[in-house]
């Protein structure tokens, strides 16, 4: 459903939200270990999240990454990494797909797409972190 980069971005953001109370910066190595991701690939994703203002980056020997002091929804993360095509575009990739001019599968997928968009838009990082904190959900196997 999401690109691999988006999956890692979601994991990164959920992990950092779980550490928000500690108010510490998390370095690249700590993050990659926590979510079991490749370091170079994770660094690029972190840069995208910083450029999208979803993360704060602090340089230097004691630097790292942290979340800004604002609620972040899952849709913000998905759009920052994968764009909005998943929740706004035709599943067949047609530019002119709409209720007035539908593709062959439009009516079958529009409600699923709208539901997904609603879930991503209304779900904040703080909504999904408690299971991680309690040890009932996991970011890696």
Question: Would you mind describing this structure in some detail?
Answer:
The chain is mainly alpha-helical and 141 residues long. 53% of the residues lie in helices and 4% in strands. It is built from seven helices and two strands, in the order H-H-H-E-E-H-H-H-H. The protein has helices at residues 4-18, 28-35, 39-51, 74-82, 85-88, 106-122, 125-133, and strands spanning 56-58, 64-66. Strands 1-2 form a two-stranded antiparallel sheet. The chain is elongated and about 55 Å long. The two termini are 20 Å apart.
Mean pLDDT: 92
Which bin fits the share of residues in helices? 40-55%
Largest sheet: 2 strands, antiparallel
Low-confidence stretches: none
Give the end-to-end Cα distance, rounded to a whole number of Å. Answer: 20 Å
Q: What order do the SSEs take from the amino end to the carboxyl end, as H and E? A: HHHEEHHHH
Number of strands: 2
Alpha-beta classification: mainly alpha
Rg (CA only):
17 Å
- 3D shape: elongated
Name the beta content range.
under 5%
User: Reading side by side through the largest sheet, how are the strands ordered?
Assistant: 1-2
Our count of helices gives 7
């Amino acid at each position: 459903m999401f690109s691999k980069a988006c999956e890692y971005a979601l994991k990164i953001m959920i992990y950092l939200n779980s550490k928000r109370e500690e108010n510490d910066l998390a370095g690249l190595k700590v993050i990659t270990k926590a979510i079991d991701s490749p370091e170079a690939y994770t660094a690029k994703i972190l840069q995208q999240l910083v450029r999208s203002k979803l993360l704060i980056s602090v340089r230097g020997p004691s630097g790292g990454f942290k979340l800004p002091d604002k609620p972040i929804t899952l849709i913000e993360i998905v759009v920052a990494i994968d764009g909005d095509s998943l929740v706004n575009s035709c599943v067949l990739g047609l530019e002119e797909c709409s209720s007035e001019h539908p593709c062959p599968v439009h009516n079958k997928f529009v409600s699923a797409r709208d539901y997904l968009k609603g879930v991503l838009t209304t779900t904040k990082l703080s909504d999904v972190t408690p299971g991680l904190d309690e040890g009932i959900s996991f970011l890696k196997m």
